[in-house]
Amino acid sequence: MTVYLRSLETAVPPTVLIQTEARDVFGAQPGLTRLGQRLVSTCFDSAAIDTRYTAVRELSRDYRSDDPQFFDPTTGLLLNPSTKVRNDIFGREATKLFVEAAGAAVSACPGINPLDITHLITVSCTGFFNPGPDYKIVRALGLNPAVQRYHLGFMGCYAAFPALRAAKSFCEADPDAVVLVVCAELCSLHVRTSNDPDTIMGSALFADGAAAAVITAREIPEGPALMRLDHFETVLTPVGEESMAWNIGDHGFEMVLGNYVPHIIDEHIVGALQPLLSREISLLDLPYRDIRHWAIHPGGRSILDKVQNRLDLTDQQLLPARQTLRDFGNMSSATVLFVLKNILELPADDGDEMICSMAFGPGLTVETGLFTKIRQPPEGIPAGVSNRLTQVTGPAASALT
Fold first, then answer.
1. Of 78, 101, 252, 393, which residue is most buried, by most CB within 10 angstroms?
2. What is the SS3 string spanning 114-144?
3. Fold annotation for 4-216
């Protein structure tokens, strides 16, 4: 059974962080050693990020509070609230992003209304509350109260792939299923000043954002599918368990992001791709750059550099990932969906186009997906007719066109 992604929408909170301004704030904290100051400058400047978004309004220089908890603009000091304070903000602000992204995805899917949703999968690793985001979305969007709800929590940057894979499985089991997948992360809740290199790197990279998709195998004449979900695979690298981790501390969640992670990815990415590409015989001996699109999770600039060099990909093939990193930073699980949206919005040539996608997370886990970007119908031609045209070749196609 063929399963399609029919809409993909994103959302970010309103507060913008300018990377150079954030660098100056973090670099001016009184507890930093000289080495810490140099690390702040190096990490922020080499991150290849211009802007990020945060749900913590206090991190804006223009925001004023009678009781600041994260940042005091009058003194320039970064504060260190408890995990409870941070998580309380997650419950409030993450709900807004979950609902905004989910509502946008349903609205952008012709032929589908909220009551058509049969399954809801929510994803986040940056906070917890219950009734959770799945419940909040059902209430806010008016979904059927009997919708099947699932939450994937604390998996990290690769979690969008298990969510998409589960959605595909639901649709294959039930041809009438319509699955709403929503990822939302508030990584900026957990930033803090520190001399620890991992903490500094996290402060330089991570940001907030959400993405949502509607996935179904239903025939929907009102609108074309955007992408076909073909195959998924999971690989654990033989090393790296201690190099990437995500733990809960007394003052927020604590990121472990060792500087050896890009080297681990460099050494094992070819092997991690093999199970996925072996699902399509035509891809086994094909040069990687002959696969048209690459949706790589931009965990950081050095990770993208290693992937590009090891797979011999062109600058153009890495552009969607690098643009996402530049404009939004690393939003954990939602980020690879931003990259996919970038690719889906690119002008298409004739015919469908293959997308190879991957994301990396604690473990070290490598999640991969193979997708097909569907050629969109010419203006004025119904989607159903256009989809039939792409399956017809030779004289019959000429007659139809």
1. 101
2. HHHCCEEEEEECCCCCCCCHHHHHHHHHCCC
3. Peroxisomal Thiolase; Chain A, domain 1 (3.40.47)
Q: How confident is the model at residue 89, as a pLDDT?
A: 96
**What is the structure's pLDDT at 260?**
72
Show Cβ contacts of residue 46 under 8 Å, excluding neighbours closer than 6 positions. Answer: 301
pLDDT of residue 351: 83
Closest CA to 240 of 185, 188, 301, 299: 299
- Residue-wise pLDDT tens digits, 307-324: 999 999 999 999 999 999
Q: What is the largest CA-CA distance in the chain?
A: 75
Q: How many residues does the chain have?
A: 401
User: ∠ CA 99-153-365 to the nearest 5 degrees?
Assistant: 125
- Domain boundaries of the chain, sorted by first residue: 4-216, 227-373
C-beta of residue 342 within 8 angstroms of C-beta of residue 323: yes
* H helices present in 149-286, as ranges: 160-173, 197-205, 261-277
- Yes or no: say if 359 and 373 are a contact pair by the CB < 8 Å rule: no
Tell me the per-residue pLDDT of 280-310, one tens digit each, with 9 for 90 and over: 999 988 999 999 999 999 999 999 999 999 9
- Structural contact between residues 55 and 147, judged by C-beta atoms closer than 8 angstroms: no
Which one from 43, 125, 157, 183 is the annotated catalytic residue? 157
Measured between alpha carbons, how far is 349 from 376 in angstroms, rounded to an integer? 10
pLDDT tens for 101-145 read 999 999 999 999 999 999 999 999 999 999 999 999 999 999 999
Whether a cis peptide bond, with omega within 30° of 0, leads into 287 is no
Fold match, 4-216 / 227-373: yes
Q: Could you report how far apart the first and last alpha carbons of the chain are, in Å?
A: 28
**Is CATH 3.30.460.10 the classification given to domain 227-373?**
no
CA distances from 38 to 75, 180, 195, 196 (A): 22, 44, 10, 12
Residue 232's DSSP bridge partners are 369
Is 125 an active-site residue?
Answer: no
Spatial neighbors of 265 by CB under 8 A, at least 6 apart, are 237, 303, 306, 307, 360, 364, 366
Q: What is the DSSP string of 278-293?
A: TTSGGGTTS-GGGSSE
